[in-house]
Design goal:
The complex is a heterodimer of chains A (about 210) and B (about 210). Chain A has about 210 residues and is mostly helical. Chain A has helices at about 5-15, 20-30, 30-50, 60-65, 75-85, 90-115, 120-150, 150-195. Chain A starts with a helix and ends in a 15-residue tail after the last helix. Chain B starts with about 20 loop residues before the first helix and ends with a helix. Classes of the chains: A mainly alpha (about 210), B mainly alpha (about 210).
Chain lengths: ~210, ~210
């Protein structure tokens, strides 16, 4: 009795059980017709396995990437920016070490010289440096703030705000403050989406997203 | 850095994507690394293009559809669930993209799947449409240098479902379960498709040998 076509197919497919396989093989040893069927199945499977993988034309990846949104999180962009400064060759590392070593050695030599003076101590140097920094910062900040508040725009804003508060009352001021807070938050969100997202390639215009 | 395998040596800091799994590459792509996107294209451009080309049988359309497939995949990486194989997901999108195009190109009364009123398999087969390339007749298709073998022609004459199943199983080497996932049909249906496709192909190849 001849095996069914499905059985012969399963045999060539390798999905026949071990015992069934042995039985079938002993039949094939004697039956030319079934051997011919098996050869047909094997020819088919060989032809299918030999079918080549076809490739698109050159530049396919570039054409795809032109339509792909590559959005980088802020830390990935920061890392990519910082990695531009990391040396990639041995010579580069030598240069980087020398460039960093020169100011460190100079500052260290100066510090050693200063501390070797008997009238100078580390504490006195620290107090001197912080006092000078604080005085300088205060002077610059006070000067900038004073100049800012003396401008026409600042004067107008203060005058208008005072007049508004006197006429609108507490409720009006609360509503205005809430509206201002909402506008500020929406503005920050729009700026974040548009300044910190990597734009889609191929865009020839600016499109704001929300 | 020296390497025994072919390819230029890595620049310090570069990742060797060949050693990473699909999931790892997807993770790097989600962090905005363009090289990871290109690696995914490099890994799947040939299988995807081969499948789509053999389904639609038109090189230009196949290139466009393959490009659409990758754009959909890469723009939706955030929604990809790593619990599923990446290859299944990509092939599913490729298959659906090709099917949508075939249905658009042949909107007339005949359904690719056969008449919904057919009550037997013979009636279904008689009313099913096997789309052929609008640009090539079978002789031109067969004489093309790139796809010229009898097996390619025979596959081109199969129903779309059978063609998809046989290509995914035999050419791409996907297991039946994955083919069922890609085609979104039960496992038994996939086995039926493959069995019928093999029988048709075997008949065609046997006829050529006569």
């Amino acid at each position: 009795m001849h095996p069914t076509d499905e059985r012969l197919e399963a045999y060539c497919d390798g999905s026949l059980g071990h015992q069934d396989q042995s039985v079938l093989e002993s039949h094939l040893f004697q039956c030319g017709r079934c051997r011919s069927e098996v050869e047909d199945w094997r020819s088919l499977f060989s032809a299918l396995a030999a079918m080549p993988a076809l490739a698109p034309t050159a530049g396919f990846a570039d054409r795809v990437m032109a339509h792909v949104r590559v959005s980088q999180p802020w830390y990935a962009r920061a890392e990519a920016w910082a990695s531009r400064f990391v040396p990639r060759t041995t010579g580069g590392w030598v240069m980087a070490v020398l460039l960093l070593a020169v100011p460190i050695i100079a500052a260290g030599t100066l510090a050693v010289w200063l501390l070797s003076r008997s009238y100078l101590t580390g504490y006195r140097l620290w107090v001197f440096a912080t006092d000078q920094f604080a005085a300088g910062t205060n002077h610059v900040a006070q000067g900038a703030l004073t100049r800012l508040l003396e401008t026409d725009v600042a004067v107008w804003l203060v005058t208008s705000a005072t007049a508004f508060m006197e006429t609108a009352g507490v409720r009006g001021v609360s509503v205005a403050a809430g509206a201002a807070a909402a506008v500020i938050m929406i503005s920050v969100w729009v700026l974040y989406r548009n300044l910190f997202r990597t734009p889609t390639r191929g865009s020839n215009y600016v499109s704001f997203t929300f | 850095m020296g390497r025994l395998d072919a390819g230029p040596p890595l620049i310090r800091g570069e990742v060797d994507y060949k050693t990473l799994s699909d999931q790892d590459v997807v993770e790097r792509a989600r962090h905005g690394r363009e090289s990871a996107f290109r690696e995914l294209i490099r890994r799947y451009e040939r299988p995807v293009f081969s499948l789509i080309y053999r389904l639609v049988r038109d090189r230009e359309r196949a290139e466009d559809l393959s490009q659409d497939t990758f754009v959909k995949v890469l723009n939706a990486l955030d929604r990809y669930d790593p619990a599923y194989k990446l290859s299944s997901w990509i092939f599913k999108i490729a298959h659906n993209t090709a099917l949508d195009d075939l249905r658009r190109k042949h909107p007339e009364t005949l359904s690719i799947d056969g008449s919904p009123h057919a009550s037997t398999q013979d009636e279904t087969d008689a009313t099913a449409l096997t789309p052929a390339s609008a640009d090539e007749n079978p002789e031109q298709f067969a004489s093309s240098r790139e796809i010229g073998s009898h097996i390619e022609r025979a596959i081109g004459e199969l129903r779309v479902e059978y063609r998809t199943a046989i290509l995914l199983c035999h050419v791409e080497g996907r297991p039946y379960e994955e083919v069922a996932q890609i085609m979104d049909v039960p496992l038994g249906t996939v086995k039926t498709y493959i069995h019928r496709a093999r029988n048709e192909l075997k008949k065609q190849l046997a006829h050529l040998r006569c």
